[in-house]
């Protein structure tokens, strides 16, 4: 039963795989987030929202061999959800980390976050949930790393660019732009037209540029 | 397993651009890329990112301690937002801080703030890799460059323009939201600035290896009709215009 399909997660809730009931992660999550257990989540350990879910890889999984890799690949092939892989990176499992990172991030294109133990995993999940909630509430401005679209006048930048032409300083750049309007037009004027605005030498320089 | 396919024959052609500040802050990353992985590393004043690995991917190298301290938040978010303006893909490599000789290994105390930063990066679609030292960072950069090469996005133009082309490069570099790689591509693909200015959006996208949206932005910029009134007034000329 490979269930990796989407599942409806009530706003602000986390749906956990039945197998985590009573575990340290679950205990620490309870009280911080609204956690519901469900059977038959298949490959997924926790669903944070309708499109984000978590696959938890323990130290024991890493040491035991390649079974967890098959699980990740199966998930990737079966699901279009955004999968976040949380892996227990301890002194014992540290040696496997680079290989896992290469598989998960570079080959499967998923997100991989290391934690030292289940306690850290639960803290991380709480933060991830809070960002999922914000995303759902369309409060995207709250994310400091998302680019905000600000309409800024292009004038200072255009002026700056024209000044990169050899022989053109601020004064000449202003004159040229007032006369010809845009960089596109400036590129298409004849040398005679340039001479009317700036001197012969500079006109020649601009023209040959 | 696919990545390790024939790196020996491919690596020499691979090119990575490194910011000049990395000579001081990550010398072993650069020397390792050159010596061990055989990549061509061109050091240039990138300004925006630490490394440019392909036509569309920028990589920033961050120390774990930088992600731990809330004091860095503004600087980091401004930097990453600026990167998102000029690159399709962004990756950060979180590197464990170096333990200086004599210093007892500090225990890494994971904070709620740190988890919050990671969550925000994930949600913003920024790729995160973890590295324990500069050598590992170099290996990750090589893997990324190889991956981008396989996806046909590798930097394949000469990275050191000479003479007149240097002036043209700095002209392109002054265009907002145009990456160093895109500026190099423009230098290489178009015979003159006039040819760039007269190009259509698809031609710009193909020549500079830009996404459609970025090519549109460049096209708009080149044809932007200058209006003196919109220029922020210098201080002496303050007042109603």
TrEMBL record, chain A:
What residue stretches are annotated with the Fanconi anemia core complex-associated protein 24 pseudonuclease domain?
8-130
Q: Which Pfam families match?
A: HHH_2, PND
A cellular component term from Gene Ontology for this protein is:
Fanconi anaemia nuclear complex
Q: GO biological process annotations for this chain's record?
A: interstrand cross-link repair
Q: Which SUPFAM superfamilies match?
A: RuvA domain 2-like (SSF47781)
Q: What keywords appear on the UniProt entry?
A: DNA damage, DNA repair
Domain DisA/LigA helix-hairpin-helix motif as annotated: residue spans: 165-209
Provide any one GO MF term from the record: chromatin binding
PANTHER family found in the cross-reference section:
FANCONI ANEMIA CORE COMPLEX-ASSOCIATED PROTEIN 24 (PTHR31786:SF2)
* Protein name, as recorded: FAP24 protein
For this protein's source organism, the top of the classification is: Eukaryota, Metazoa, Chordata, Craniata, Vertebrata
Q: Which gene encodes it?
A: Faap24
From TrEMBL, chain B:
Q: Give GO terms: molecular function aspect only.
A: 3'-5' DNA helicase activity; ATP binding; four-way junction DNA binding; four-way junction helicase activity; hydrolase activity; nuclease activity
Any Gene Ontology biological process? interstrand cross-link repair
**Domain named ERCC4: residues:** 15-98
Protein name per its UniProtKB record: FANCM protein
One Pfam family per UniProt: ERCC4
Could you tell me the keywords of this UniProt record?
Answer: ATP-binding, Helicase, Hydrolase, Nucleotide-binding
Looking up InterPro entries in the UniProt record yields: ERCC4_domain, Restrct_endonuc-II-like, RuvA_2-like
Tell me where on the tree of life, at the top rank, the source sits.
Eukaryota
């Amino acid at each position: 039963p490979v269930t990796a399909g989407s599942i409806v997660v009530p706003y602000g809730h986390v749906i956990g795989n039945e197998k985590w009931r009573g575990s340290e992660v679950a205990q620490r999550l309870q009280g911080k987030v609204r956690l519901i257990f469900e059977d038959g989540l298949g490959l997924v350990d926790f669903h944070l929202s309708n499109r984000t879910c978590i696959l938890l890889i323990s130290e024991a999984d890493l040491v035991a061999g390649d079974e967890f890799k098959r699980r990740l690949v199966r998930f990737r092939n079966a699901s279009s959800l955004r999968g976040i892989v949380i892996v227990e990176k301890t002194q014992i499992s540290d040696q496997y980390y680079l290989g896992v990172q290469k598989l998960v991030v570079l080959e499967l294109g998923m997100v991989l976050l290391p934690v030292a133990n289940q306690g850290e995993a639960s803290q991380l999940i709480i933060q991830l949930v809070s960002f999922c909630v914000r995303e759902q509430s369309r409060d995207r401005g709250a994310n400091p790393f998302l680019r905000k679209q600000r309409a800024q006048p292009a004038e200072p930048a255009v002026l700056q660019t024209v000044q990169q032409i050899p022989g053109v300083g601020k004064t000449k750049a202003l004159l040229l732009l007032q006369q010809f309007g845009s960089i596109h037009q400036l590129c298409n004027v004849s040398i005679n037209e340039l001479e009317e605005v700036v001197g012969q030498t500079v006109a020649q320089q601009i023209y040959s540029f | 397993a696919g990545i390790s396919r024939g790196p020996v024959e491919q690596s020499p052609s691979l090119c990575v651009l490194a910011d000049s500040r990395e000579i001081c802050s990550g010398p072993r990353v650069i020397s390792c890329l050159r010596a061990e992985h055989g990549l061509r590393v061109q050091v240039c004043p990138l300004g925006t990112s630490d490394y440019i690995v392909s036509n569309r991917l920028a990589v920033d190298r961050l120390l774990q301690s930088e992600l731990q301290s809330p004091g860095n938040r503004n600087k980091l978010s401004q930097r990453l937002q600026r990167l998102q303006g000029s690159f399709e893909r962004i990756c950060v490599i979180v590197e464990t801080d170096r333990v200086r000789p004599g210093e007892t290994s500090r225990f890494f105390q994971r904070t709620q703030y740190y988890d919050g930063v990671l969550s925000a990066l994930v949600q913003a679609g920024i790729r995160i890799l973890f590295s324990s030292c500069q050598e590992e960072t170099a290996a990750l950069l090589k893997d990324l460059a190889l991956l981008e090469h396989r996806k046909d996005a590798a930097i394949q133009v000469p990275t050191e323009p000479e003479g007149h082309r240097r002036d043209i490069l700095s002209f392109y570099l002054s265009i907002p939201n145009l990456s160093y790689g895109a500026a190099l591509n423009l230098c290489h693909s178009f015979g003159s600035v006039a040819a760039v200015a007269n190009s259509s959006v698809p031609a710009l996208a193909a020549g500079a290896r830009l996404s459609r949206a970025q090519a549109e932005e460049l096209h708009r910029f080149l044809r932007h009709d200058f209006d003196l009134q919109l220029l922020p007034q210098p201080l002496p000329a303050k007042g109603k215009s």
